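Example complex used in Figure S2.
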Amino acid sequence: MTVCIIGASMTTFGRRDAWIRELLAEAGGECLDTAGVAPDAIDHLLVSNMASGEFEGQTGVMNALAHDLGLVPAYAQRVDQTSASGGAGIHAAWQSIASGASDMTLLVGGEKMTHRGTPEATDVIASITHPVEYKHGLTLPSFAGLAARQYLHAYDAPRESLARVAVKNHANGVDNPHAQFRKEITIEEAMESPMVADPLRLYDFCPITDGSAALLFCSEEVAKQYTDEYVRVAGIAGATDTHVVHERGDPTTMGGVVESSRRAYERSGYGPEEVDCAELHDMFTILEFLQLEDLGFVEKGRAWEATEDGMTERDGDLPVNTSGGLKSKGHPLGASGVAQVYEIVHQLLGTAGARGVDADVGLACNVGGFGNCVTTTIVEAP
Amino acid sequence: MLEAARCPNGHYHHPPHPRCPDCGDVPDGRIDLAERTATVVTWTSAFATPPGVREPNSVAIVEFDLDTSDDGTESGSASDGRSNDNSPGANDDGENGAPNEGGTVRAIGGLTTDEVAIGDRVKPVYVEQVRAPGAGIREPESQGWDGYRFEPL
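Predicted assembly (535 residues):
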């Protein structure tokens, strides 16, 4: 069965007063409204969220949302795959429709984080690590520093090439009304920003963010009853890599990206050369390089040159993170994978406004942990 | 003890896992890496660290060459910062467990200094408290707070 997406919405990302329940209801309600789908049509509700209990002390968010949106007695489930929870929710939604278990599935991803300070939020996220890592103070930013140093060393890449990623994604975010940061930055500002995890500086990192995003899934037969404006899930797959990061042969290769994309390409019938635009998980600038390579868009060790040559710019051969990416749009953990596909949907439908590019096939790569779990989603215009 | 597990098929892993990540067999041997020397694969110094973590916090991934004598006279296979044995090209079907047939095992830990470079030789140094217990969000009782930091030779 061909699984389609007939609705997409997202809240403004950034520092929000709303708590998790309110954020989820905002995106979920708007998704139903814009698609013109009544609450009683929803068979399954999926909520992508990493850590509402740890951040806010609120658990059972899927039941809260089912009630708040009038979806009872729909089946409701929370999906946690750390910062890949959004992609995992898309995978679960695709399964729910493809299996015939649900005729209409609403997926809402969200996270409320900013009420915690950066050190506390960093510690919540670092709780995904193995004790041998955690006890030495390893955080996701420090893993990024370790990988970036090795990448620059192994491939003789200039430090400025990483800053190019941040400059590009900030420029794209200017045209995204939902983005946390809507201001351009320069290479010089990025290179002079405070050191966070040597050699990475503040502008190599996404911010702490509140926000939510939603997608509505059904079969193509059902989709046509509602609208002509829908897209198809052409292929999706998830995969894992080692929990303990140092046990990987090469920390500059993300095995979960390689494996999930291999299977997503296979299921979709598309290869990397047929992808017109991509949303990559640029939680750290170095991750955009690693995904460009591990998704097969460029050869290993060449992403930094491709970036410097402008390949990933909005007017380049493969526009990457037209939304502004996690870097400028923000990264509310459970929402990010959902918001990636929100951007792809609007690119394929030609409704991305000033961010728009010419695209019939889009790819989203959502990375959890430091590549511990990854989902790759390929979406096509009908 | 900086413990690595050995499975019946000769795979080494630090930390030990209940089943070997490479082959799924139950490990039947242990080795202590604490008296050996290692090579720095990569390192970083982190700032804005979470509660209970020193600032800056310099950490490294290091590689122990189990075939190398402990006097550090051989540089080990990670001297270029990448392990040939574990490179993705050696693993055509995209598997990612680090196979340790090459006689190496990696570990992660703090550094005693930020004066270090990829390829440098280091030795483990025992530290009674690697992190302030009880300051983070994890259950203090679930954590062994002692450990090893790496000191350049």
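Residues 3-116+208-226 of chain A form a domain with the Peroxisomal Thiolase; Chain A, domain 1 fold (CATH 3.40.47.10). Chain A touches chain B through 54 residues (CB under 8 Å).
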